[in-house]
Amino acid sequence: MKVLFVCSSNVCRSPYCEYVLRRLVKEDPDLNGKVEIKSSAVFNKMKNIFPKAIPSLIKEGYTEEEIKAHKPDYIWCNYKPFKEADIIIGMSRSHRFLLPVWLWKKYKPLSVAAGDKYHLVPDPFLYRTQEEYDECMGKIREYVVKYYNKIKEELR
After folding, report:
1. What mean pLDDT is predicted for residues 20-46?
2. pLDDT of 72-122, one tens digit each?
3. How do residues 38-66 score in pLDDT, each as one tens digit?
């Protein structure tokens, strides 16, 4: 199964989802090797992960080296993950409309993929303080864990 997380710039939400889900899958003997996880942007081409993402991911147990190794991807620079993905998970309904129409059938907002009704996943990029940023990432983490539990059930 190939999962692609997308957000506007691939510097906050989608890489966070990628890191968290990848770790959950890697630590699960039933899923390790069965799920491939990537992330990309659908709106902006950026060069580096957002600075506030670094302390947030360090709190999750990632090293600064691991985090800074993330190089934001962008749909129009690397189309391959979009073609290969079984599911494309975005943070809002609007991300779907930034994809070519033929990819829409693969797209789900994160809250829906996690088994909930639709909820916009706020963009932590817009928050001023690290505390607000981390709080937003905590909400995203809850959805990723729910999605992990859902795919765990589906793949058993």
Report:
1. 95
2. 999 989 899 999 999 999 999 999 999 999 999 999 999 999 999 999 999
3. 999 999 999 999 999 999 999 999 999 99
CA 48 to chain centre: 16
Please state, as a whole number, how many other Cβ atoms lie within 10 Å of the Cβ of residue 26: 13
Instruction: Identify the residue whose tokens are 């494309």.
Output: 88
SS3 77: coil
Distance between terminal CA atoms of the chain? 13
User: What are residue 127's phi and psi, to 5 degrees?
Assistant: -85, 140
Structure tokens at 15: 């890489």
Q: Where are the alpha helices (DSSP H) in the chain?
A: 13-26, 53-59, 64-68, 80-84, 93-96, 110-113, 130-155
Which tokens belong to 141?
């983490």
Q: H or E segment at 87? A: strand 87-90
Phi/psi for 36 (5° steps) reads -105, 130
The whole-model pTM stands at: 0.96
